[in-house]
Automatic annotation (TrEMBL):
This is Clavaminate synthase-like protein. One of its GO terms (biological process) is small molecule biosynthetic process. It comes from the Eukaryota. Keywords: Iron, Metal-binding, Oxidoreductase.
């Protein structure tokens, strides 16, 4: 299954019918115009669900969709290269470099992950000699990466600004002041290739459940595979790729910065079609390394510390993850069963009681 204009309620997966969760759509052009109704919708999405579509089909967002297509072409060439070429620098830092298939825990018990990934950070792409493998280290490909990072940064910063306005923030209290372009951060573009895998027989499966470290994640994918568990929902369900849109989710850092009023939705990736190669592009907008917030354990820490602690927990073997503090992998979000899928469809996420979306 590919990108769609008609979103089904369920799809067959792993021997059963899996739900497809509905999501609100926010218009990027209206956010640029600071339309009050659209800002109100955006705030509501972030406070109740933590996920939404961002419609980029207007003239202001269309260029980003074009950049995505050019990035996909680059990815297809890059991931077809020999391992020694892709892994020229290895993983230079948590937000820069190449990770081969099987580097982390998989989505199912006793499995490893089923994707390889190349990350290029916003800070790194601006250097005179960025650490980028030689097969994409040419002026044309670097320009493609620059465009993808710059466009994604503009989209996410526009969303961030609208959220500040919607929360009535002014001056230094606005969220943008934790995300200034000239200050060091771990903001990065991640290009992911998921290999064909069958959950019944294979040992490299998908992407384990987690919440994102970032403030905002901007995700482009034309293929099915992303699953979310909205706050209070009973089971994981798919998110449909939508024509002309990207998917945005709130990450831990923005939830913390908002005083825990926003939701950082739990999600994972599974192979809907076990025979296909799946490609996705994610831009992680992250707070400045030295910015401060109170995390889900009540600690007043820097964004850099939260990034490092969560990354290393996420990358640890399964048995070590099980021993780690519960607030790290899921950012303190609740991971239990309270609301049925049918209730979510009938009431919508706005109809879910507040008590059902509380976090630890």
């Amino acid at each position: 299954m590919g990108i769609t204009t008609e979103i089904p309620r369920t799809v067959p997966w792993n021997g059963k019918q899996a739900p497809v969760y509905p999501m609100q759509t926010v218009d990027f052009s209206q956010l640029l115009s600071q339309e009050p109704a659209e800002i109100e919708k955006l705030v509501r999405c972030c406070q109740t669900e933590g996920f939404f579509y961002i419609d980029l089909q207007g003239i202001d967002g269309r260029r980003v969709l074009d950049d995505q297509q050019e990035t996909l072409k680059l990815m297809h060439r890059f991931f077809k290269s020999p391992l020694e070429v892709k892994n020229e620098y290895g993983l230079v830092s948590p937000h820069l470099g190449y990770e081969p298939v099987g580097s982390r825990t998989g989505v199912l018990e006793n499995t490893k992950d089923g994707y390889e990934m190349m990350k290029v950070s916003r800070d790194e792409i601006q250097r005179d000699a960025p650490h980028i493998p030689r097969n994409i280290k040419n002026s044309g490909d670097i320009k493609v990466l620059e465009n993808a990072i710059a466009g994604s940064n503009i989209i996410t910063k526009t969303i961030l600004s609208a959220l500040s306005t919607g929360h009535g923030l002014a001056g230094a209290a606005r969220f943008e002041n934790m995300h200034r372009n000239h200050r060091p951060s771990t903001s990065t573009l991640a290009m992911m290739h998921y290999i064909p895998s069958d959950p019944v027989t294979d040992k490299n499966i998908g992407h384990q459940k987690h919440t994102d470290i970032s403030s905002l994640t901007l995700l482009f994918s034309e293929q099915w595979g992303l699953q979310i568990r909205p706050p209070g929902a009973k089971e994981f369900g798919f998110v449909a790729p939508k024509v002309g849109s990207a998917i945005v989710n709130v990450g831990d850092s923005l939830r913390f910065a908002s005083g825990h009023t926003m939701q950082s939705c739990i999600h994972r990736v599974v192979p809907l079609d076990p025979t296909e190669h799946r490609y996705s592009i994610a831009y992680f907008l992250r707070a400045e390394d030295e910015s401060m917030f109170t995390d889900s354990a009540g600690r007043y820490i820097t964004a850099g510390q939260w990034h490092d602690e969560k990354f290393y927990t996420f990358s640890a073997p399964e048995y070590e993850q099980q021993q780690a503090p519960s607030y790290l992998l899921l950012g303190g979000m609740k991971d239990d069963e309270e609301v049925t899928v049918s209730e979510v469809h009938e009431k919508g996420m706005d109809g879910v009681k507040k008590s059902e979306v509380e976090v630890y």
